Amino acid sequence: MAGRVWVVGSANYDLVFRSPRFPRPGETILGGEFSSFPGGKGANQAVAIGKLGGNISFVGCVGDDAFGGLLRTSLDEAGVDTTHLSTHPSAPTGCASIVVDASGENEIIVASGSNLHVSPDLVRKALAHSQNDPVLVQLEVPMESVLAASAGRQLFLNPAPAQALSDTLLTTTYVITPNQEETQGLVGILPIDRDSCREAAGRLLDRGVSNVVITLGSAGCYWRSETDEAQIAAPSVKAVDTVGAGDAFNGALTWFISQGRIWQNALALATHVAALSVTKQGAQPSMPTLSELKEFAPNLL
Q1: How far apart are CA 90 and CA 84, in angstroms?
Q2: 35 HSE (CA, 13 A, CB side)
Q3: What are phi and psi of 231, to 5 degrees?
Q4: Mapping DSSP to helix (H, G, I), strand (E, B) and coil, where does residue 11 land?
């Protein structure tokens, strides 16, 4: 059982625009609502773990600006150790522009900013004394830094945004958590049912991954290892904003697996955490607390 989980990744400030629908190319839509929240896949996942009461450290980089200060405050308030959150003197804090339509679906553009300065050296120094701790990473920081985080550790890989992955990385990956589109990009199969999930997961297992978890949105998730598999249904909720749902799932899954829970239980808990997150606006503000999870899923804890 791990004492601490590390998240290496991005920290962005999210600028969220709500609209009845997504604009077409060249079109301007009036009447949308605007809000802003601390975000970034890495920071979101760290906050998800912190709000569940986890022992969590975050490795990342923000700019020396107002957004950077707001992100650091959000992480601190969630109980995340920010000792290894560096501040870059000239690069701006990463920023994401998010459009959310009436159904709660979203489109996102990210300006990486200071996230490009999450260097391999920064990662190696932060993790120098954490050989036995699991590490959760995403792909919003340089790939060299992702590889530095994977060296000799139990690696949880959220392969987003989608890109090609080397066998060097996959063979060191304990858990990979692609969504349907990311799975199709990695193995050429769109997982839409149990059979296609099984086949897609098998191709990732063949490349050296130990566990494959394919997230299926409102349909839940599918897990396969070399010896077992399971499909977990998602609870039904009214979606207000799906931004951060995948991060809620990844953070929760990493924490619950690191604490020695069996796969089916950890997956069910992570799915409930993600479902709770879509009932509120914003990424980090929507991450549920442990008490909220206990109330929502009392039979799982």
Answers
A1: 18
A2: 14
A3: -120, 125
A4: coil
Rounded to whole angstroms, what are the CA distances from 53 to 74, 104, 149, 233, 293?
Answer: 15, 28, 23, 25, 11
DSSP 8-state class, residue 279: T
Query: Under 8 Å CB-to-CB from 208, ≥6 apart: which residues?
Result: 167, 170, 171, 172, 173
Decide if 43 contacts 69 (C-beta within 8 A): no
Contacts of 209 (CB under 8 A, 6+ apart): 170, 171, 173, 174, 175, 176
CA gap 297, 69 in Å, rounded:
34
- Catalytic residue numbers read 247
Q: What string of pLDDT tens digits covers the 301 residues of the chain?
A: 668 999 999 999 989 898 999 999 999 998 788 999 999 999 999 999 999 999 999 999 999 999 999 999 999 999 999 999 999 999 999 998 989 898 878 888 989 999 999 999 999 999 998 878 999 999 999 999 999 999 889 999 999 999 999 999 999 999 999 999 999 999 999 999 999 999 999 999 999 999 999 999 999 999 999 999 999 999 999 998 888 999 999 999 999 999 999 999 999 999 999 999 999 988 999 999 999 999 999 999 9
Nearest in space to 178 (alpha carbons), one of 194, 155, 201: 201
Q: Specify the pairing of strand 94-100 against strand 106-111.
A: antiparallel
- Indicate left, alpha or beta for 90 from its phi (over 0: left) and psi (-120 to 50: alpha): alpha
Look at residues 238, 236, 193, 229 and name the one whose alpha carbon lies nearest to residue 211.
229
β-bridge partners, 5: 56
Amino acid at 245: A
Asked if residue 20 has a cis previous peptide bond (ω within 30° of 0), the answer is no
